[in-house]
Write a structure and sequence with these properties.
95 residues, mainly alpha, 74% helix
């Protein structure tokens, strides 16, 4: 993926490892982030992922739906990423 974010390759790998629930891969990518970006950046990356997860869970728990405008704008990548298959998609999409 081509981004303008410095160290995007390792940050994306770290995010993938977090959500893949693969402890060995997570430890490997966490060490790579630490080596390339330092301990502070590793903490910030972990906190960002944790915060996103927390906010997403809160939104799902209270039944916040995606705005109708955003449903159309995100349809292609939600399908491609399998997001519509998540159990919580019923809350987010208002199905």
């Amino acid at each position: 993926m081509d981004t303008e974010v410095e160290h995007a390759d390792i940050l994306l790998a770290y995010a993938d490892a977090i959500y893949a629930s693969d402890g060995e891969e997570l430890e490997k990518t966490r060490a790579q982030v630490r080596k390339r970006m330092g301990s502070g950046a590793t903490i910030e990356a972990a906190a960002t992922a944790a915060n996103f997860s927390m906010l997403d869970r809160i939104a799902n728990a209270v039944g916040i739906q995606i705005e109708s405008m955003a449903i159309g704008q995100t349809e292609d990548f939600r399908d491609e990423l399998g997001i519509n298959d998540y159990i919580s998609a019923a809350n987010s999409l208002g199905n």
